[in-house]
Write a structure and sequence with these properties.
293 residues; alpha/beta; 8-stranded mixed sheet; two-stranded antiparallel sheet; 11 helices; 45% helix; globular; binds 3-hydroxybutanoyl-coenzyme A; 3-hydroxyacyl-CoA dehydrogenase
């Protein structure tokens, strides 16, 4: 019988962490959301308020319901506040040293039966697990952007993850209204391993000026029925996140498909990170407008 988790923590309140916190709170769980400073927690809070406001204006949420959801999320700048969490989901940037450090700290703070999950997109869950004294209670729980909308959660088990932990996390995914798929610990898991070669290829096509960004995106939307084109999707994912994922997969597989197209690094250096900074392949000065950079 799966354990019904009620007290959860989220570490990192960027696009994914904020989205995950919202999903958890919407399902009635009590969430402690932690980031490094007040500015970061305020950004996360604003993201969640905006997302639930959008649901309110679309008639998908009642005002009282929205207040309840927002009331279930407590913000903090201290990992110590996760001492009572039954599950912690880490969603900090894709850097192994940073994640390893956080897992070490969480291991010292949380009770031994707390499940430590990572939302990593491409790093090794096994490597993170051995930064703790409880590798069998470490698991991958990979959400997709935007987390409140996308139905999938990839549950990543390592060779030592306890079956009961997989069961608890799968049961939670179902309570969140998600569909889970389970996979072993390979770079990119299922979806990113298949998606990012395609995204990278689209960026190379744009970089070589074979076609305009609008035409590349239109081809995949209108010709292949995808909800958004690859360059718009890169902007949604975040150029920095996309770079980290490609770089990690390339280092692991040496598959040329994943060697990040040079323009991705250049955009990252120039701060063109996509929607979150207002500019990427497109400009978002006016919401969702598509101006040439
Ligand atoms: N937060 C919350 N809700 C959002 C949202 C957001 N950021 N963006 C859209 N929504 C909701 C809207 O409120 C709307 O809800 P409703 O149907 O209940 O009214 C619904 O989503 C549809 O939104 P819109 O009508 O505004 O726009 P679209 O129909 O174009 O949908 C989209 C937007 C859902 C983003 C759609 O374009 C899409 O599915 N795009 C592909 C996204 C994708 O591929 N994500 C995976 C990326 S890879 C990844 O995340 C892995 C990671 O490791 C990098």
């Amino acid at each position: 019988m799966a354990r019904e988790l009620t007290e959860v923590g989220v570490v990192g309140l960027g696009t994914m962490g904020a989205g995950i916190s919202e999903v958890l709170a919407r399902a009635g769980l009590s969430v402690t959301a932690v980031d490094v400073d007040d500015e970061a927690t305020a950004r996360g809070r604003a993201h969640i308020e905006q997302s639930t406001e959008r649901a309110l204006t679309r008639g998908k949420l009642e005002s009282a319901e929205r207040d309840e959801i927002l009331g279930r999320i407590r913000y903090s700048t201290s990992l110590e506040d996760l001492a009572a969490a039954e599950l912690v989901i880490e969603a900090v940037p894709e850097r192994l040293e940073l994640k390893t450090e956080i897992f070490g700290k969480l291991d010292a703070i949380c009770p031994p039966d707390t499940i430590l999950a990572t939302n990593t997109s491409s790093l090794s869950v096994t490597e993170l697990s051995v930064a703790t004294a409880r590798p069998s209670r470490v698991i991958g729980m990979h959400f997709f952007n935007p987390a409140p909308v996308m139905k999938l959660v990839e549950v990543v088990r390592t060779v030592v993850t306890e079956p009961s932990v997989v069961e608890d996390v799968e049961a939670l995914a179902a309570r969140l209204g998600k569909v889970d798929v389970t996979i072993g610990d390979r770079a990119g898991f299922i979806a990113n391993a298949l998606l990012f070669g395609y995204l990278n290829h689209a960026v190379s096509m744009f970089e070589a000026r074979y076609a305009s960004r609008e035409d590349i995106d239109a081809a995949m939307r209108l010709g292949c029925g995808l909800p958004m084109g690859p360059l718009a999707l890169m902007d949604l994912i975040g150029i920095d996140t996309a770079y980290e994922i490609l770089d990690t997969m390339y280092k692991q597989s040496r598959n040329r498909l994943h060697a990040p197209a040079p323009i991705i690094k250049q955009m990252m250096t120039a701060g063109l990170l996509g929607r979150k900074t207002g500019r990427g392949f497109y400009s978002y000065a006016q919401r969702d407008s598509a101006e040439i950079v």
